[in-house]
Amino acid sequence: MTAVVKKRPQSAWAVKSLVAAVLFCVVVLPILAMFVQITPGDIRDVVNGPNFGSALWNSLRYTTIATLIVVVLAYLLALCTARVDIKGKKILNIILILPMLIPSISHGMGLLILFGQNGILKNLIGWTFDIYGGTGIVLGSVMYALPVAYIMLADVLRYEDMSVYEAAEVLGLGKTRTFLRISLPYLKKPLIAAAFSTFAMIVTDYGVPLMVSGTDNYTVSTLMYQAAIDQQKFGRGAVYGVILLVPAIVAFVVDLLGKDRGEGSFVKKTREGSAKPLSKVLAYAFCTLMSLFALLPIAVFAFLSLVKRYPIDLSLTADNFAYIFKGQGATYLVNSLLIALITASVGVTLGFITAYLSARMRSPLSRGLHLLAISSMAIPGMVLGISYVMTFAATPLYGTLVILVMVNTAHFISSPYLMMYNSFGKMNQNLEAVGQTLGIGRVRMLLRVFLPQSVGTLAEMFSYLFVNSMMTISAVSFLANTQNKPISLMISQFNEHNNEYVAVVSILILIVNIAVKIAVEQVKSIAARRK
Amino acid sequence: MDTLSMSNCKLSIQGINKQYKNNKAIALDNVSVDVMEGEFLSILGPSGCGKTTLLRIIAGLLQPDSGKLLLDGKDITDAPPAKRSLGIVFQNYALFENMTVLENVTYAAYLKAKREKSATKEEITARAMELLRELGIADYAKKYPAALSGGQMQRVAIARTLILNPDIMLFDEPASALDVATRLQLRTVIKDIQAKFGTTMIYITHDQEEAFAMSDRIMVMETAKISQIGTPSEIVSAPANDYVKSFVVDNLQTKIDSLNRALGKSV
C-alpha cells in the first residue's frame, strides 16, 4: 500500500532530475574526471616508487590493528552504556564524543605533546616510549576513530529487541549459547559494517600518520599527501587516491548489504540488563579509563594553550591566543566559520529536499536519487579533494570559499541526508493523501506540515555538517590557499616547537564545535517540547 | 436505467480495473457498484482483497487502468482528489502533529475560504469549535495530537474532513487501531454524523461484526472481485457462494455460538 500520488508528475520528474544533476556534478563527476586524467606514467611512477611497497604494508597492518582495537573497545563501551545500569551516562556520552570534534591531526599532535621526545608524560613521570612510527599511528587512529564506532554500535545495541532474551531465558538457553546464537548473529552485520567503515576511516586519514609516522614510516595516505601537496603531482596523487577508494567502496557496499534489518523492524522491548555488581564495577572502571583516554589530549591542549612556554615557563597567559589572532589566525577562523555555516545551510537544504523527493515521492527515479545521495559516503575526503583540484583548478572557483563549501557539502551530505530520509520514512504515510483530499497543495504540505515536524532532525543535520566542516583537514587541504584557508589546516604548518599554537587552534575548533552542539541540543529540546 | 435510481445514486463506480505494475498482481477486476445518496456502504474483505485500492481510486489518490467514476452523474474519473467533494479518514489518523487540534481542523478550511473568499477566519474557527463540541473533544482544541488518545485523534481526523462539508466520507479501517470499547464509541460517533448530516459513507473493514452493525449495505470482496452486495439480512439469509458463507456468515455464527455458550445456552 503506497501513498504515492501522481499529481503533476512532470514537475516532480523535473525537480528530481535537477537535484540528481546537482548531486552528480558535485560528487560523481569530479571522480570520473580524476580517473580520466590518470596516465600510465603516473601509475608507473607510483608503483615503482621507493616507498610504495612498505607504505601499502604499513597502511594495511597499522589500520588492521587499530580497527580491531577500535571495534573491541567500542563494543565494550556500547555494552556498558546500553546494557549496564551505570550512572552518569549523559556525561559519559558527551566525553566519549569530544575527540570527534577536533581534527585528526590534533590527535597526532596530542600524542607527540604527551609522549614525544620532550613530552609531558616524560617530563612528569619519566615515562618514555617510542611514539614515532606504528605505535603512534595506531594509538592516534584509535583515539580519532573510536567515537564514531562507539556511536554506531551503541545505537545498534540500544535498539536490540530484548524480548528475545527473555524467551531464551524461559527456554533455558545457557549464557554462552544465548550469546553465540542470539547476540552474535544480531550483531554480526553491524559489527562487520562498523569494522569496515572504521578501517576505511583510518586508512584514508593522513592527519595522524603525518604527525607521528617519523621519518621512514610512510602510509599510502601520507604518500598521497606528499605527492599532491608537497610536490603538486596530482596525477600521482590520484593513483594513491584510487587505492584508498577501494576500502571505502568496500565499506560502503558492506554497509548497504547490512541494512536489510529493515527500518520497520519494531522493537517490542528494550531493556537495561540487570548486571551483577562485579560487572557494574568493571563497567565503571572501563568507562572511567576510556573517558580519561578521550579527555587526555583535550586537557593537554587546554593546558598548553594557556601557559607561556612549556616546560620552561608555566605561568598562565593569553599570549598564545593573541599570537594566533595577530597572524592569519583570525582570518582563517572567520573562513572556517563561514565555510561551516554556509556548508551546513546548503547541506541541510539539499539534504531535506533530496530526502523528501526520494522518501515521500517514490518512483524509479527516487531510487537513483537515493543512491546518488549516499554515494559520497564511499569517497574518502582526500580522494574527493584531489578530484576537485583536477576538475576545477582551471575554473574561477578554485581558491575561493565557494569551492570549499562545495567540496564539504559533497563530502558530508550522505549522513545528514540519511537522517532526514529515515525521519521522512517514519512520518505518517497517508499525509500526502490527506493533503490532496483536503486541497492542501504539495508545497504547502511540505512547508506547513513536514518542515515543522523536521526541526529536530534539521538541527541534528546542521550540527553534523557544521562540526565536520569545522574540523576537516582532508578534502579542503587540496583546495585551500592563503586566501581561503580554514583554521584546521593551520595545524600542519606548526612544528613540534610550536605546540602551544597547535593547542590554541585545536581548542578554538573544539570551543566552536561544543558551542554549536549545545545550541543544537537547545533547538532539539524546544522542538521536542512543542509536540 | 430508470430515472428514479439515477436520482438516488450518489456515486456510480463502473467497471474499475487496476493492476499493479511492480508485481503484476490484479488488484481490482471489473468492479462496479452504485452507492446511494445517504447510504452507509461497507466494503468487507480480508487483507489484500483490493478494498483499500478501491477506496484510493474513489478518492482520486490512484488512477484506475480502466473504468469510470460518476459523482451525481458527473464523470470525476480524472478529477483531482480535492475536487471530488469527499473526505477520507485513515486507520492511523494522519493528523498534522505540529498543529493543535483546532488548527488541524481549520487549516484546510481556512485555505479554501481564502481561495474562494467565502468565509472569515472567525467563522471557520466558530464552525470548527462547534464540530469539536459535537464530537466531544472541544476541551482538547488547544492540545497537540500527541496528547490525545487514539479515539480522540480519530475524532479530530473526522472533524477535519467534516468541516469541508464533503458529499461522501471514506473510511479506511478507522477503528482497527483502537481497543474494543473505543471502537464501539467511534461507531456511534460515525452513525450520529450520518444521521445529522446525511453524508454518504463508504466504510472499509475486515471485521464482519462491524460491517453488520453499521451498514445499510455490505459489499463483500474476495481477491480483486465483488462476491456479493446486499443488505446484512440478504447476505445472512442468502450468501452468494461458499466464500461469503464461510468468511462472513460462519464467522459471525462462531461469535454468536461462543457468546451463547458463555451464557449457558445450548448451541
Task: Give your account of this protein's structure.
The complex is a heterodimer of chains A (531) and B (267). With 531 residues, chain A is mostly helical. Chain A is built from 22 helices and 2 strands. In chain A, strands 1-2 form a two-stranded antiparallel ribbon. In chain A, helix 5 (104-115) crosses helix 22 (499-529), helix 14 crosses helix 21 (455-471) and helix 14 (319-360) packs across helix 22 (499-529). Chain A starts with 8 loop residues before the first helix and ends with a helix. The model of chain A is unreliable at 1-8 and 261-265 (pLDDT under 50). The model of chain B is unreliable at 1-6 (pLDDT under 50). The longest helix of chain B has 21 residues, at 242-262. A 6-stranded mixed beta sheet of chain B has the order 6-7-8-3-9-10, with helices on both faces. In chain B, strands 2-1-4-5 form a 4-stranded antiparallel beta sheet. In chain B, helix 6 (180-197) links the parallel strand 7 and strand 8 (200-205). With 267 residues, chain B is α/β, with parallel strands linked by helices. Chain A binds chain B through residues 1, 3, 5-7, 428-431, 433-434, 436-440, 444, 448-449, 452-453, 530-531, and chain B through 52, 56, 59-61, 63, 80-82, 84, 86-88, 90, 92-99, 107-108, 111-112, 144, 146, 160-161, 164.
Biggest sheet of chain B: strands, sense, closure? Answer: 6 strands, mixed
- Taken in chain order, the helices and strands of chain B follow as HEEEHEEEHHHEHEHEEHH
**How would you classify the helix and strand content of chain B by structural class?**
alpha/beta
What percent of the residues of chain B sit in helical stretches (DSSP H or I)?
A: 40-55%
Strand order, main sheet of chain B: write it out: 6-7-8-3-9-10
> Average pLDDT of chain B, to the nearest integer?
92
Q: What characterizes the major β-sheet of chain A?
A: 2 strands, antiparallel
CATH superfamily of the largest domain in chain A: MetI-like
